[in-house]
TrEMBL record:
This is Chromosome partitioning protein. Gene3D superfamilies: P-loop containing nucleotide triphosphate hydrolases. It comes from the Bacteria. It comes from Nonomuraea aridisoli. GO terms for molecular function: ATP binding; ATP hydrolysis activity.
Amino acid sequence: MHRPLVITEDHALLDDLVRIAAAAGAQLDVAHVPAHARPYWNLAPLVAVGADQADSVAAAAPPAREQVVLVTREPDDPDTWRKCVAVGAQTVVSLPSDERHLVERFADAMEPDPRSGSVICVIGGRGGAGASVLAACLALRASADHLRTLLVDADPLGGGIDALLGHEEASGARWGDLVAREGRISSSALQAALPAFGDLAVLSFHRGDVAPIPAQAMRSVLEAGSRGFDLVVVDLPRHLDPAATEALTRAKTTLVVATADIRGILSASQVLSETRKHTADIRAILRPGVLDEEVVVSSLGVPPAGNLPDQPRLTATLNRGELPRLGPRTVLGNLCTSLLQDLLPAT
């Protein structure tokens, strides 16, 4: 894979660019003069031209291309934008103020196959409503349809969605490993680190003591997930913490699983009052109960997205480390297929 190209003879600036690229997990090709840059100019995913070499690069008249930035430490220099136009750059990056932006640019340049995955959050209207089962089944159904899918466990006290899948012993990174790492996560690094089963990757918790997920860690994972996967399914806790709030703000759609009984609706209404503060598109998945569907929908005030039926012998199935059948002839399989067709962009 080709590397970003830096053109500068300013050694202090080069040291900064090498450090910034390392934060993005990138290595650089370096040219101190434009002549040395010619073999890399068209191949590099990103070209960063130091302000000290801008006029020399312009004089060399390289072919016009996208993804060229001018890097300067003197944003107030009135000559900066002239240099930007002359070199064919699309933007000016000023250090140190734009350092985070440049990390993002380097990281984006290193993504081998950027995607635009949708984030779908699933949350229970009350405990035991079946939100984790739905999240897991939705991710399994998507991966069975050859959608590259990431299933994220965002509930530190939920017991581990990897255990629900029967893969708690699978090798790979858990939340504790990712939280310990600072900075942005590339999608390729995330995919390589996580336990994976075909087209499904799973991010869950270690057994034993767990710590809350920092919002920044959730942000990094969801950004990497959206770039590297077709679908990201997040299983949320009912009591929203900063990480859950971060996930909601990035969700295309949030599914609230509500049971059709008095306590279930009262509890789901409280969950919805908090959820609405952080996301717009919320839909209800209804579990059977004593109340009619129209009463439940009217009480919740969100549109229904489907019905999640009771599953005979579900507890025994889950305790064996298995999930319900999701074939085309099953009600649960049909629900997941319908949800994916409704919620994901047509391809």
